[in-house]
Amino acid sequence: MESNLSLAYLMLSAILFVIGGVGVLIRRNPLIMIMCVELMLNAVNLSFVTFGKMLNDISGQIIVFFVMVVAAAEVVIGLALIVAMARRRPGATADDLRTLRG
Amino acid sequence: MVGLVWLIPALPLAGFLLLVFFGKRIGEPRSGWIGTGAVALAFVTACLVFAGLWGEPEHTYELSLFEWIPAGNFNVDIGILLDPLSMTMALFITGIASLIHLYSIGYMHGDSRFPRFFTYLNLFVFSMLVLVLGNNMVLTFLGWEGVGACSYFLIAFWFEKEENASAGKKAFITNRVGDWGFMIAIFMTFFAFGTVTYTEFLPMAPGLAQTTATFIALMLFVGAIGKSAQIPLFIWLPDAMAGPTPVSALIHAATMVTAGVYLLVRVNPILAASASWIPWMIAIVGIATAFLAATIAMAQQDIKKVLAYSTVSQLGYMFLAIGVGGYTAAIFHMITHAFFKALLFLGAGSVIHGMHDEQDMRRMGALRKVMPVTAVTFIIGWLAIAGVPPFSGFWSKDDILAYALHKSPILYVIGLITALLTAFYMSRLVFRIFYGDARWGESVEGELANLKAHTAADVTESDDHADAPDDAHAGAGHGSVHPHESKWPMLVPLIVLAFFAAIAGFLNLPFTHNLEFLNNWLEPVVGENQANFDLGAFQLTFELVLSTTIALLGIFAAYMVYLKNKVDPRRIELPFFANGWYIDQSITKFMGGAGRKGFELIAMFDKVVIDGAVNGVGRATRGGAARLRSIENGYVRWYALMIGIGAVLLVAFAMTQVSF
Q1: CB B633 to CB A26 under 8 A?
Q2: Cα A63 to chain centroid, rounded
Q3: Cβ A101–B641 below 8 Å, yes or no?
Q4: Could you report the per-residue pLDDT of B487-515, keeping only the tens digit for each?
Q5: What digits encode the pLDDT tens for the residues B112-123?
Q6: What is the ipTM of this complex?
Q7: Which chain B residues are within 8 Å of A92, Cβ to Cβ?
Q8: For residue B10, what are the CA distances in angstroms to A18, A79, B14, B128, B155?
Q9: pTM over 0.80
């Protein structure tokens, strides 16, 4: 039973990760893209916790804390960029930013 | 006192720096005096150092000023090696150079680039002193290139005329061939010994493998024949006469062209360690050059050309001396030659000056009456080079011939024949300039027409202008020339040089060992490798008498031909000789024809293979970049996809490596 439950969690994690990944790839709204990235991160978090439980190892959960901290920091930067972009060019999408390429 | 030696090159350098920055502002007479003063002071310093050098052990003193190129185990210092050889060179270079500087003040008077001339001259003297005083081959090479560059500047000094500029280029390019040999020799020396400092590697030379020594000697010889104008690289020296006459005297007679001789004497232990055909080759090239150049000199009409070929010929004697192991004889002849050839060139310059830039001997004659000082000094130089005792050339040439006889009678006989030719063509020069009828009075127009005819029909014909020179004085029209004696700055050097040309032979008299001052003085440098033999009193007398007879015979022959008109000069001045054995023409023809194709082939190779490789790399990079650039399209999602694919591939790769 125990392992079946873990498998379910892992399946959920994989589904969330794929949703997030596809979202990053197909959406153009930067806000949605950030949210999708967050979704991917949390999918990974979920798998970490699950593995930690399966292997009876606390380090899986510790890593999750690290990931959450990094994700928070990343969101701050990301949102700041999005706000700056929205102020300068309202309604711009991530694809419009390709003019920034070298 | 010997510690002052660094001042010897430093003074001309200071003169050069002063003149190069302020020469124009200093102006005409004063810049000349500064240049002369710098070199004269260097000469005084050299005398003081010479006095101090007597107190040093083995008369040798080495001074390292500072480190120049420290690179791993390759170390080159700016250092001075003062030994009897370099001291001798430094003394006569500074001595003759100061006289020629003084002369130039008179000769270059009124030239628009007067200060620049002295700038170059001082730079030349500095380079030449670096060449002879440097304690390692790299420093010698620095001086070697320096004198080459100055030679180029000064040959092409009047570059407004196309031919002067191209004469400079010819000298420079021909010298490059020799410089290449010298450079290879330096590399090989470092490869073989691990050092290029003379005092370090020369004592090791006897232990060197013979093939290595032979190769180094060969390459040094290539360097020497370039600088010292030997077959086959002598072609630049006659053309170098395009420069002002003091330059011809200083650079292309007395000092620079003897650098090759100096170099070979300096490395005599390497020559001694090389295969036995190396000295033979040097001797044969030397004697062949001496003979060839002497024959050409017989048929030249330009008085500077005669002296130029004569210089080539005398340098051939010095190479002969080196080849037969007479190193001191080579240096002895170098010194006496420096005196009498500088004297002859300066005398010729005085004549040219007095004749208003006329160089063709067919338009001279009887000048001894109007230019008495020039004539007397020139005649002393003539007797010296012709080998009439007791003038200096007699002793030094005879010294060389004695060594040549010791090696092989054939070399001796050709040497004697060349001596005969030397006496002949020099007498011809003197008789044509200072004796006979005055041909300079004739109208220039007629002469020019004549000259054109000559140049067209191979300059052989010697005009017989018997027609009344006195008319010219009477009808001194616009075309007539008034020769005049030169001013004192030009005459003083002539007189001093004439004095030394007369007595320099006493440096090395062959009669007893004690009288061979130069031999004994140079003993520490060349002693071990000098050919050693004792002439019996009979043989010595025989040789001296034979040489004297040969010299007088040559003079007598010239007297019969050019003053008594017993033989038509045209039968002697063959076009073959006048054109320098057609060597220049052959080279031109070869370079224009067969050689040209070869060079074009090489140029093709350069263009297709070398350039192709270089440009190919560039083109490949650019093409690849153009294709790669398309994936950097700026879409964030595209990058995300790439990252994702990359991650999947990495994981897939990791999974193939790990077995579960």
Answers
A1: no
A2: 15
A3: no
A4: 888 899 999 999 999 999 888 888 887 88
A5: 899 999 999 999
A6: 0.85
A7: none
A8: 83, 73, 6, 12, 25
A9: no
